[in-house]
Amino acid sequence: MKITRIAGIAALLAAGVTAQAQTAKLDGVLMEFWATQMMDNSLRNNATASAGASKYYALDSRFQENNFAVKRAEFYFSGTVTDTLSWAMMFDPNNSNTPAGPNNVLQDFTLSWTPGNGFNVKAGQFKMPTTYEATLVAAREILFFERNQINRRLGDARDRGIWASYTYGNAKSFMGKLNVAVSNGTTDDGSGGKNNENTLAGSGNAQKDLTFRFESAFLTAHKAGFYYREGQTGLKNTSMLTATIPGTWTVGAPSATQIRDNKDKTTLMGAYYAFNNATWQFSAEYATGLLGRRYATLFAAASAPLREHLDQKFTGIAVDGAYKMGNHWFTGRYDMMNYNSGDNWYTAANPYKNAVTGADFSPKYTEITVGYNYVFIPTKQSAGKLKLNYVMRSKNFLAPLAPQTTEQGGNSLVASLMLSY
């Protein structure tokens, strides 16, 4: 039923329904199919780590079995109302109804006003202007089976709000773009930002997230920029009155008042650089900030905190590249996320380490990916490619089974077929 409705909308838009100066069109379709092969039975058999670190590593369930999966089935539409007013939408009917409900198939929805002189204002549902790969590299152009940890965890979710930008210059010499956005801040509520502020029980406070990014393109082949985002809990003030000191926080723990006053402050700051020409492609990104509401200490009803310190910080680094030989591209990526980069906690002993077995479940995860891409049209990689990736993961996100004693993990082989028009 859901797909039938989407198909009906697509038919109307693609037919170019017009009203005076209005136009509507189907801009493109992106389809991606995965085949995954686990290289270690630990991925299938072992439970998530019991030392508190596993909650930070989001292992896609598709990697826990040998699996065929539809990754993307995206439909892009846009239209103009006047010379300065336009709209755009992107649907993915492959998305399930949970956890966000029926709106989960609607990925992007923007209403834009472009008065000229480099100014643009848009409102709707979209990714906030933060991380490089998630917001400035289209899904059809990423080099690997999936985005790196910084981007898929911190930049890939949508939010609802207003985004203003100003662009100046020329990319052949120097082009700059200033972006400022105000949004609900529901990115971390389990819906991927596809809910209104007051959708969930106990939520709906007046505070909003603020986001800033400066981005630049210069000398044709280079891009660089930096960004900052700040927000707080999504709870109403009255819903925070139940905050208590967790029983496990015994050494230097904050008071209940301090926990409430902190309001799960959430930040993201980072910088990126990218280079791309006919032979080489390279990008590097660094991000850090406060975990805040991503792993909350405040809840509508009393609950255990999801992080180990009130001001717990994360740090991420991602470096990737490709060497291009016509249709044949050879790729590699180093990808690290540390969810407690300050190594702080309120417990008497390290909560990530097992004093008996010596197992270390510290929430620092590294993925090294090597790959090969067969690009169907080398001058237009977005048209389609076959990607083969071998993913090597650090071994600290699965619990040991008898007779195992140390931290466990597992690697994957992934084949991705992507077509787009």
Automatic annotation (TrEMBL):
Signal peptide: 1-21
UniProt keyword terms in alphabetical order: Signal
InterPro entries in UniProt: Porin_dom_sf (IPR023614)
Entry keyword Signal: yes
Domain of life according to the entry: Bacteria
Gene3D superfamilies registered for this protein in UniProt: Porin (2.40.160.10)
SUPFAM superfamilies on file: Porins
The name this protein goes by in its record: Porin
Protein's organism: Candidatus Geothrix skivensis
